[in-house]
Design brief:
The protein has about 650 residues and is α/β, with parallel strands linked by helices. The protein contains 26 helices and 8 strands. α6 crosses α20 and α9 packs parallel to α14.
C-alpha cells in the first residue's frame, strides 16, 4: 500500500509535493542542452512556432508610428527616434527581460503565464502571507484572460497586414483585401481539427524563408542609405521624447507592436527548451528584424511618402506578389502558433480548476502537446471574423492589439518579482531593481495603449474581463459545490462495516466510482447503494487530482490503498499539461489485485442538477452563470476517456 497524499485545504487547488517540483528537473521530453544537428533542428522548429508573431510585426509596426492622426512627420529626427525606440524595445523587452530572465522561470521545463503562476503557488506560504496568494492568483488569471484576447487579435491583424500588400501592388484590387482575409482566417480555423503534425513540418522553413527575405530587403535599402544606422544610438530615442513630450509617449502605443509575440518565447519553452529559443533569436530573428526595420527607415528617409506602407514598398515591383504570398504564409504560421497556444492555455485552465471541462482531441499519436479543442476553436474563429469585420484594416486593429500584450507584460514582471523573492531568494534590492526597471518600461507601454481604449483598446479589455469573471466564477462555484458534496459523504469505515453487516449482494466485475474527495464514501456510491441494493465484487474509488506541475512521473502517478470488503481507494495525479485517462489508470491496478476485465468494468459518475438560491457566498447572478457553464460542459465520461457504453451517470439535485 502506498501512502495517500496530505489533504488539500478546501478551496485550494491540490498540488504535488514540493519534492516533485524542483526547478532543475525538466520533463523527459525537454532537452536541456541540445547540440549539433539536434540543436539546429529544434532551432528551425522554434523559428516557425515561437517567432511567427513577432516576425510578422514589420508588416505594420513601423508604419503605425507615422499614422496621420499622430501628426508625426517623416523627417530624419523622427525616423531616427522611432527606429531607436524599436531597437531598444527589442533589446530590453525581448533580449534582456524574456531571453535572459523570464526563460529562467521554468516549471519543470514548461513556461507560460499559468505555468509561472503555478510555480509561484508551489511555494508554501505562512498564514500571514495567504492574502498575497489570492493577489498572485488574480494577477495570473488576468494575464491568462488577456492572452485569449491576444489570440483573437493576432490572426486578424497578421492576415490583414499581409493581404494589404494587394493595395500596394494593385490598388484597383483594394476591395479584395477584406474578403480574402476572411477567407484565409476561416480556412485556417476549419483545418484545425486535422492537427498540425503534417503542416507543422513546414512552419520552420516557411518562417526561415520569411526572415531571410525581410532581412535581404532591409539590407538592400540600408546599403542605399547607410546613415540610417546612426539610429543604433539610444540618444535618438531620448531626444525623441524631449522633442515630442506627450506626443512621444503616445507613439509608444505603436512602438510596442514591434515586440508583440514576446510572450510566445516563454509559453513555448516546454516544446523546444531554452537553448534553441535563444539561438533562434540571436542568430536569425533579431538580426532579420533589425535589418528590415532599419531598411524601412532608410526608405522613408529617401522618400517620406513611403511611410504609408514602407514594408511592401521595400520590394521591387516584380517581387511584390511573391512577397504577398510569403507574408500570407508567415501570417498563417503566426496565427497557428497563437491558436495552438490558446488550446494549451485552456487545457491548463481546466487542469488547474479555472475552466469547465472541454472536449480535448489529440491530433497526434506521438506528440501529447498537439491538441484540438472544438469549443475554443469556434469561439476564436467567430471572434476573429467579428474583429476583421469591425476594424477592417490592420492599422485600425493596432489600437486594440497593444493593450492585451502590454497588460500581459506587466503581470509577467510582477509575478517574476514574486518568484525571484520566493524561489530564487533574491534580496529586496536586487529584486526591486528588476521590478522597477521593467515596470517602468511595461507601464509606459501600457499607459500609452490605455489612451487608445476608445479607439479599439476596449476589445481585449472586454474579452479579458469576461473571461476573468468566468474563470473566477467557475473556481469559486466548483469549490462551494465540492464542499457541499464533502459534507454529504459518509466515513468510509462506517460504510464498509455496514456492507459487511448487511451482507450486501455482490455481482461479478469492477465498479469504478469517480469522486473528487480523497476521503469518505462518494455521494454517487451512496446513491448507487440506495437504488440498486448491490455492489460489484470489487469497488474502486477513483480521485483524479490536478497538480501545479506540468507533468507527473509514472512513479508518482498512483496512490493505492486496499480496503476491506473488496474496496480500493485510488488517487491518480495529473499535471496541468496532461489529459487524464481513467481507463489506463484502471489497467495499471493489476498489481494491487484489481481485475483487468474491460468488459466487466463499469464507471459511475455523479451529475448534479444545481438550483440557485438567494443566499450563500455567491451572488445569484454568478450562481446562474456557474450553473449555465456547468450544464454546457461535456460529460465527465468524455473528458476522462471513459467508453460511453461502460459509463453510468447518477443524478442528484442540489441547491447552490
Amino acid at each position: 500500500m502506498t501512502e495517500p497524499p496530505q489533504e488539500t485545504p478546501p478551496g485550494e487547488t491540490p498540488t504535488a509535493t514540493e519534492s516533485a517540483t524542483h526547478l532543475e528537473s525538466p520533463p523527459a521530453h525537454v532537452e536541456a542542452y541540445p547540440t549539433g544537428k539536434r540543436l539546429a533542428a529544434l532551432t528551425l522548429l522554434a523559428i516557425g512556432v515561437v517567432y511567427g508573431d513577432i516576425g510578422t510585426s514589420p508588416l505594420y509596426a513601423f508604419r503605425e508610428c507615422f499614422k496621420p492622426e499622430y501628426g508625426l512627420q517623416a523627417n530624419q529626427a523622427n525616423v531616427y527616434g522611432v527606429l531607436s525606440l524599436i531597437l531598444w524595445s527589442l533589446i530590453l523587452v525581448v533580449s534582456v527581460k524574456y531571453i535572459a530572465f523570464v526563460l529562467q522561470a521554468d516549471n519543470r521545463g514548461e513556461g507560460g503565464i499559468l505555468s509561472l503562476l503555478a510555480l509561484v503557488l508551489q511555494r508554501k506560504h505562512r498564514e500571514s502571507e495567504r492574502k498575497y496568494r489570492m493577489v498572485v492568483i488574480v494577477l495570473g488569471l488576468i494575464g491568462a484572460a488577456l492572452l485569449y484576447g491576444d489570440g483573437i487579435i493576432t490572426p486578424a491583424i497578421s492576415v490583414l497586414g499581409a493581404m494589404e500588400g494587394i493595395s500596394v501592388a494593385a490598388p484597383a484590387f483594394h476591395h479584395l483585401v477584406l474578403p480574402l482575409s476572411l477567407g484565409v482566417i476561416v480556412g485556417l480555423f476549419l483545418v484545425q481539427k486535422r492537427g498540425t503534425a503534417g503542416v507543422g513540418k513546414i512552419f520552420g522553413p516557411v518562417t526561415l524563408l520569411w526572415f531571410i527575405v525581410i532581412a535581404t530587403l532591409g539590407a538592400i535599402e540600408i546599403a542605399k542609405e547607410p546613415r540610417t544606422l546612426l539610429a543604433l544610438n539610444p540618444w535618438y530615442a531620448v531626444q525623441f521624447f524631449v522633442n515630442h513630450g506627450t506626443g512621444g509617449f503616445i507613439i509608444l502605443g505603436a512602438v510596442v507592436l514591434a515586440v508583440t509575440g514576446a510572450e510566445a518565447l516563454y509559453a513555448d519553452m516546454g516544446h523546444f527548451g531554452k537553448r534553441p529559443i535563444r539561438t533562434a533569436w540571436f542568430a536569425i530573428v533579431f538580426p532579420a528584424l533589425l535589418l528590415n526595420y532599419f531598411g524601412q527607415g532608410a526608405l522613408v528617409l529617401r522618400d517620406p511618402s513611403a511611410a504609408v506602407n514602407p514594408f511592401y514598398l521595400l520590394a521591387p515591383d516584380f517581387f511584390k506578389y511573391p512577397l504577398i504570398a510569403i507574408a500570407t504564409a508567415a501570417a498563417i504560421v503566426a496565427s497557428q502558433a497563437m491558436i495552438s497556444g490558446a488550446f494549451s492555455l485552456t487545457r491548463q485552465c481546466v487542469q488547474l480548476g479555472y475552466c469547465p471541462r472541454v472536449t480535448i482531441v489529440h491530433t497526434s499519436k506521438t506528440e501529447s502537446g498537439q491538441i484540438y479543442i472544438p469549443e475554443v476553436n469556434r469561439a476564436l474563429m467567430v471572434g476573429c471574423i467579428l474583429i476583421v469585420l469591425g476594424f477592417r484594416t490592420s492599422s485600425a486593429l493596432g489600437a486594440a492589439y497593444g493593450i492585451a500584450v502590454t497588460g500581459t507584460f506587466t503581470i509577467t514582471t510582477l509575478l517574476m518579482f514574486v518568484l525571484a523573492r520566493s524561489w530564487w531568494n533574491w534580496d529586496r534590492v536586487r529584486a526591486g531593481i528588476f521590478v522597477v526597471t521593467f515596470l517602468i518600461i511595461d507601464l509606459s507601454f501600457f499607459g500609452s495603449n490605455v489612451l487608445k481604449v476608445i479607439h479599439g483598446g476596449w476589445v481585449p479589455l472586454l474579452i479579458g474581463a469576461a473571461l476573468f469573471l468566468m474563470m473566477t466564477t467557475w473556481f469559486r462555484g466548483r469549490t462551494i459545490v465540492q464542499d457541499m458534496m464533502n459534507r454529504s459523504t459518509l466515513p468510509m469505515d462506517l460504510l464498509i462495516q455496514d456492507v459487511a453487516k448487511r451482507k450486501t449482494p455482490r455481482v461479478p466485475g469492477v465498479a469504478v466510482f469517480m469522486t473528487p474527495a480523497s476521503e469518505g464514501a462518494p455521494v454517487v456510491l451512496l446513491h448507487h447503494l440506495k437504488h440498486n441494493k448491490m455492489l460489484h465484487e470489487q469497488v474502486v474509488l477513483l480521485s483524479i487530482v490536478s497538480t501545479e506541475v506540468p507533468e507527473v512521473s509514472d512513479e508518482s502517478r498512483l496512490t493505492v490503498e486496499a480496503l476491506p470488503e473488496g474496496f480500493f481507494r485510488v488517487i491518480s495525479k495529473y499535471g496541468y499539461m496532461e489529459t487524464p485517462d481513467v481507463v489506463k489508470v484502471i489497467e495499471r491496478l493489476g498489481p494491487w489485485g484489481v481485475h483487468k476485465r474491460p468488459g466487466e468494468t463499469s464507471y459511475y459518475l455523479g451529475r448534479e442538477r444545481l438550483l440557485p438560491t438567494g443566499t450563500g457566498p455567491l451572488a445569484k447572478w454568478r450562481k446562474n452563470l456557474y450553473i449555465f457553464m456547468s450544464r454546457n460542459t461535456p460529460s465527465a465520461a468524455e473528458f476522462f476517456g471513459i467508453p460511453p457504453n461502460r459509463a453510468v451517470e447518477l443524478g442528484a439535485q442540489m441547491e447552490l
